[in-house]
């Protein structure tokens, strides 16, 4: 019966691109949305003269910078390269310290190590798990050079507090906004709140180019440094040389090949057109979750400050073992068995073996992040989720919570 239906459906309609496979029962925690317009945009570039650094790179940089409300954008090959470029532009080097929140992906801290600097971990706020400005203040030393703000889940940090600390101590403020394209703080867009703001275009993020990243900034000098950095430390790119009809170039610093291609940027431009709709869908899904879990003791969504507009890359809840009668790991297993692709974001960076060995970090350094890590679960959150998918997640979480011992 089912098989017959599937075949009929396949025949009668053009295949929907890039939906999680319907045969797999698992609803993933994140998934890209690719449509025919995206495919056409990529195919068009493949038929053109430029497939790597050509006109689409600049067009994508300008489109993201305009969306984020900044003057310049520098596209690079992935979000991690964007963090590396931002930390480089900020002048991080051996002996410098950068304050990084414990609750983030390792790349937020790794970029400091790439340049010979030292990440110093600060604890996060209990309610939203973004960096705690008081903990930043407590970690300042004469060697502190920058603060790395991470808009964990898509919830902007307290940028007024961070800016005030940065200004008082002459530090640069770098934002890892991999989760927060389209988020706002006190009516101001993420992108305009730090000296350098990084976005990722990995498939789980708001806009994808397969792999890709960008740093936006209002400072043309920082932008120039990053353009040179992404291209071997060479001061003009091949397109500019071609236009000027010259072969001459100079390598002025040690850079990398961190270029993003025109193929990828065409996808990014096409994706960006759908971002407002995608953000609205993410927010609508979050509102349904909020409503359902408000009546469900033991399942506690992270709180959202009234100062922010959340971008909902992730929807994270804390599970309370005392109320639901099972711990996070058990809840994770039960939900996975029910086909809900829950995940855990993140293991606090200072607890990773590499950091423990290399920097001597240990349990007890960031108690709020460590306690949160024991309880958090990321629920499925992506714009292509149907209302039925959302219902299935809510029902499954409800079954887990209500299975508690009396
Ligand atoms: C995704 C992500 C990155 C890295 O981006 P890539 O494009 O995967 O290299 C960095 N920081 C955070 C918080 C992220 O979520």
What report would you give on this structure?
The protein has a seven-stranded mixed β-sheet, sandwiched between helices. The longest helix is centred in the last third of the chain and has 20 residues, at 275-294. Helix 4 (79-89) crosses helix 5. Mean pLDDT is 93; it is low at 1-15. It is globular. Helix 5 (107-114) links the parallel strand 2 (97-101) and strand 3. It starts with a helix and ends with a helix. With 406 residues, it is an alpha/beta fold. The chain has 16 helices and 13 strands. The chain binds pyridoxal-5'-phosphate (PLP). Residues 78-80, 104-105, 107-108, 150, 176, 178-179, 200, 202, 213 line the site of pyridoxal-5'-phosphate (PLP).
Properties at a glance:
single chain, 406 residues, alpha/beta, 3-stranded antiparallel sheet, 13 strands, globular, binds pyridoxal-5'-phosphate
